[in-house]
Amino acid sequence: MQFAAAILYETGGPLAIERVQIGELKTSDVLVKVHASGLCHTDLEVIRGTLKAPLPIVLGHEGAGVVEAVGNGVTGVKPGDHVVCSWNPNCGHCFYCIQDLPILCEAYARNSSRGQLMDGCTRLSCNGAKLHHHILVSSHAEYCVVPEAGAIPVSKDIPLDRACLIGCGVMTGVGAVARVAKVSPGSSVAVFGCGAVGLNVIQGACLVQASPIVAIDVDDRKLEIANQFGATSTVNPTRDDAVDSVRNLTAGRGADYSFDAAGNEKCLQQALEAVRPGGWIVILGKVNFDSYVSLRFGSLIGEKQITRSSYGGARPSRDFPLLAQYYLEGKLKLDELISQRIPLAEINNGFAAMKKGEGVRTVITFPS
Ligand SMILES: [Zn+2]
Ligand SMILES: [Zn+2]
Question: 354: part of which helix (H) or strand (E)?
Answer without folding.
Answer: helix 347-355
